[in-house]
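Try this one yourself first.
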């Protein structure tokens, strides 16, 4: 190969690398060195948190000790510290499923993570629960991946692409006509919106065959994490926002069967009743299922704690004043998370001592 050809190739490679760095495709050298150094001190427990108002009570907690290391990368800030001698990384996702999924993937791809704890506030579909309660669901599902059926088709009609395995009628559907109001006395009426069929997510596990999909709807939390979390059910939680604003029911920690997520702020009594009757879900939020699905795909232990800030459209006017009880719910969520990490730290110490 002629010398000028070598020079041209090197120049082209340099231009490509420069373009990639400009687009954020490559990690800056200084940041990579910080990441490498951090990972030499790992592994860490990843704390994935939707918003700053949910993160701040933990940052201000006497149980959290911040280190002098913070790494800003790809639009996210990764904060390092310890809780009960457990090394942790805190990262804020922002609102919605896509932000939660992107942030969790960045966390797991960049750092040495032994498990993920997700927490925040949520609405509530379970009529037996109250504002301020902290829920610990055993399963999570994303309930906004739909196959929207054309008008005129019904439950007996195959969905488009169902025969290819892309979609299914196994999970069930919502018929909009069942919620029509202001109709005549005739019992026969319809709605052009027809039916939406709930769908599982496609998952491509890291230990599976590339491009060979699996399907997942109900994603379980880690069995050990869930077992440890049951030690928290007697925790005392806050019941007052201030000296004049208190809840009528004392908040409690509750183990529940299911939680659900979608990029939807739910404040509708009819849909709240529907998803509870259909799926027996308690907390409804906008992020947890995304974190669960990424952890499932990456084969990383996961659990989520969600404190009830509102009743998602049910109850009295007071019960829907989410802004009034957001701080209380966030504080209660942090109380439970800190105690869970203490349990996890103690269990890890015991396991290492026995071995």
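Now uncover the answer:
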């Amino acid at each position: 190969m002629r010398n000028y050809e070598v020079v041209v190739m090197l120049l082209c490679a340099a231009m490509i690398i420069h373009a990639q760095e400009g687009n954020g495709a490559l990690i800056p050298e200084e940041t990579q060195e910080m990441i490498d150094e951090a990972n030499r001190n790992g592994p860490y427990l990843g704390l994935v948190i939707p918003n700053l108002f949910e993160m701040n009570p933990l940052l201000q907690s006497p149980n959290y000790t911040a280190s002098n290391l913070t790494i800003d990368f790809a639009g996210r800030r990764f904060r390092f510290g310890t809780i009960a001698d457990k090394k942790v990384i805190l990262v804020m996702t922002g609102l919605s499923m896509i932000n939660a999924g992107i942030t969790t993937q960045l966390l797991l791809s960049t750092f040495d993570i032994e498990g993920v704890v997700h927490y925040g506030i949520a609405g509530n579909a379970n009529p037996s629960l109250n504002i301020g309660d902290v829920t610990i669901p055993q399963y999570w599902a994303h309930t906004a991946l739909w196959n929207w059926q054309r008008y005129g088709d019904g439950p007996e009609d195959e969905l488009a692409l169902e025969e290819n395995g892309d979609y299914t009628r196994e999970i069930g559907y919502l018929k909009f006509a069942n919620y029509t109001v202001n109709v005549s006395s005739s019992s026969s009426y319809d709605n052009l919106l027809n039916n939406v069929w709930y769908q599982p997510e496609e998952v491509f596990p890291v230990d599976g065959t590339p491009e060979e999909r699996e399907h997942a709807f109900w994603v379980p939390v880690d069995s050990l994490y869930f077992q440890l979390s049951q030690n928290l059910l007697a925790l005392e939680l806050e019941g007052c926002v201030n000296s004049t604003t208190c809840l009528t029911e004392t908040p409690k920690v509750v183990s529940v069967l299911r939680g659900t997520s979608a990029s939807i702020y739910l404040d509708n009594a009819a849909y709240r009743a529907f998803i509870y009757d259909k799926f027996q879900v308690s907390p409804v939020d906008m992020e947890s299922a995304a974190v669960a699905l990424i952890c499932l795909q990456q084969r990383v232990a996961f659990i989520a704690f969600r404190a009830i800030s509102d009743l998602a459209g049910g109850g009295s006017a007071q019960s829907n004043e989410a802004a009034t009880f957001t701080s209380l719910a966030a504080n209660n969520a942090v109380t439970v998370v800190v105690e869970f990490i203490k349990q996890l730290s103690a269990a890890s110490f015991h396991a290492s001592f026995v071995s």
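Discussion: The chain has eight helices and 15 strands. Residues 91 and 323 are 23 Å apart (CA to CA).
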